[in-house]
Amino acid sequence: MATTAPAPNVTMRARRGPYIVEDWDARIFRVNREVFRSPEVFGRERRLVWDREWLYLGHETELPKPGDFKQRALAGRPLMFVRDSRDRVRAYLNACPHRGTILCRETEGNSKTFQCFYHAWTFANTGELVGIPDAGAYPPERSFAETMGLREVPRVENYRGFVFVSFDPSVRPLVDHLADARDYLDLMIEHSERGLEVIPGTHLYGIRGNWKLAVENAMDGYHFSPTHITFVEYLKTTGYVTSDEGGRAHTLENGHCVIVFSGHGGRVGVQWEPRFGDPAKGRTEENVRSIAARLGEERAKRIAETSRILYIWPNLLLFDIEGLAARQLEPVAADFTDVRAWELAPAGETAEERMLRIRILGSFIGPGGLATPDDVEAYECVQRGVVATANDPRPNVDWSDISRGMERESQGEPARSVDEAGIRGFWRHWDDAVGAGAR
Ligand code: FES
Ligand SMILES: [Fe+2]
Description:
This protein is α+β, with helices and mostly antiparallel strands and about 450 residues long. The chain is about 30% helix and about 25% strand. The protein is built from 15 helices and 22 strands. Strands 14, 15, 16, 17, 18, 19, 20 and 21 form an eight-stranded antiparallel β-sheet that branches. Strands 1-2-3-22 form a four-stranded antiparallel β-sheet. A hairpin with a 2-residue loop joins strand 12 and strand 13. Helix 10 (about 280-295) packs antiparallel against helix 11 (about 295-305). The longest helix is centred in the middle third of the chain and has 18 residues, at about 280-295.
């Protein structure tokens, strides 16, 4: 083992528990498995992260017409994601201001008003209370109605179509939260001159696992070849050879992280690879030329020739590898997470490109593709496995190892995506936000 002294930036990082142990002299980075099991940790996360941070709600193109609405849930709260009749995108708490029942019980639809089934109060999609049966039993209707409109989520902001909410009225501006993750988000958005749109339809599935396992898995290039062996074998049949060596992990500000690698996928309209055949090649080359004409060679190269998996703390994962897939994490309990997932596409692509994109989604990152079921199996097996070591008093037993690549990193080498540097970045931020209070 090399004995080179750790680079100065890493010697500053030392953690001594109770949840994270980081020691660069010994090249140790460990996570105590209680973080995946404990209802107490889950409660603290809810209070310290989910009730305070910006959370991804949805994309504005999910609501193309005034009156469109969809039900959502974030931080355990039922929500309504609405484009109101004045064309404004809103987020309301889905609880009737009268006595608190779920107000909107349809998953999605289009309506100017929402009527509560319990006592039939009616609210405009712009928020006003517009109808009360037997209104004479209340104080003069106008002043009463003014205080009883739909309750908005305290903060809503839109970054280039991506709509985020926060339950903390004093949260910092969204762009400050996104910080240097914006650059990677912009690369996805600028893929098309006309921006992005969500392909209609939502995948909703539940994972019997802790939400942090989904983040670890997304930032983990190490698992790709063994876990997704079926996909790797399939790629070989197309003549495509994967190489992870060039991939890099970047820890970004505010808990975000990204892994960047040369494309192994067929990003429709931009990247070409043999499994999509020769006809795709000419079209994608033409698209790369047009991106270069619009944004310059360097930006076009980044958009076209690299793939990225971007994690926006705490609940959004963007897979810009094969098409562009978005996943929203909603922790339900320490051992259960709901996932909503969408496919985003450049607005205005041809019907042929759109079909190819859906095919690509189905083959790998979609819920029935060659990747996602493998990954879900991995999260669920970890959740089942980490129970085995609960309360085990022996040293090192109830701890997961996240040290891969520390030796390389400590010698000043860039962090690789097949190492665990991105996951370490995530855990450090988590520990500052949630673990610090337990020290
Ligand atoms: S609870 Fe909605 S009208 Fe009474
Ligand atoms: Fe995976």
